[in-house]
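INFO batch 0412 | record 1 of 1 | parsing
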Amino acid sequence: MPKLLKTLIATIACLVLLDAMVAVVLALPRGRSGPVAKLAQFFDYGYSVPGKLTDWIARPGAPGNLFDVAWRQAMMRKSAERFAREDPHTPEIRGYSMSFVNHVLEAAKALDPGLVVDLHAGPAAPPNATFAMFLDDRANRRKGDVVVFGILSSSVPGMGALSNQTWMFEQPSPFTYPVFLPAPGGGLTRIEPLMESAAQERANLLTPSSPGARAWRGQLRRVDAFYGPETFGLPWLDASPFARLVRRSIAVKSIAATKQRLLADPFGAPLPYGEILRRMVREFAMIARADGQIPVVVLVQVRGKPDLAALLKPTLRAERIRYVATVDHQDPTEPEAYTSDGHYTPEIRVRFGQAFLKAIGR
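INFO prediction complete | emitting tokens
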């Protein structure tokens, strides 16, 4: 056997052995802290999406487990139950959003304790998710309510997805939502996900060859701009720490490239998100006003594109829709404006809460 070939085989064998040794160390009980735990978390980020979700099923109480969060069916059931217990004579602030807008509304309530706030939200929920929450919760609002539609700039690319699991690789919360597209005659076409509950997701993950699981994967391939083998393929490679590192690098780059492609043209292919958002805010205001409610749009701008204020302020003003644009009160490019988890600081949230109270005349 040639010397070069022997060297190559020996090198591969050493790498495989090293990979196996690292896998054994990472599999040891490690508690919740310490250097091994942090190292393990670093490698865990590279698990495939099915691997992460299956792990969440196995460890329901694990920190950061988002498996059962923000499923619309469950959310609407809880909303209906709460609505049935409410005082019918007390108007409420009903928010449809994500944590950033929740913080704004919570700050407003802290400033004005007389407010009654009902929050419907999902982690990093894109506008199609928050708009669907608003539409589906219509029966659980009353005349006189203030209705809030929250839009987060960094989540706009998710308008091309059916679930956070396809575009939030490191924390792929599996809750689902529709994709909205411009209808030819005006308005919006709504494409509902085939997956609607945590129970369905569990069943499909545990029986991947079932008709429901195959149908869901087929819809993701057809409709979801982010679904692909980089994040979902070859889950058996999760056994290798080295493969997980490689997957994480490839997946992050692939998702970033897809986001860039989706955001390239607000009014053209592959996703005319600018036109979709303008139609969303118009329909939001039309429905709320028809029901005797006050519509308010909250535009949360963080670092990067798109510029929500430039995109939507002309429509909001033309339609006389009340709004709060965080960029009017805080420069989103200032690093000191954010906490370590990426949210705005409590002091800045107070500023946003004051702006919200002004927008609703409080």
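INFO post-check: The chain has a mean pLDDT of 91.
INFO record closed
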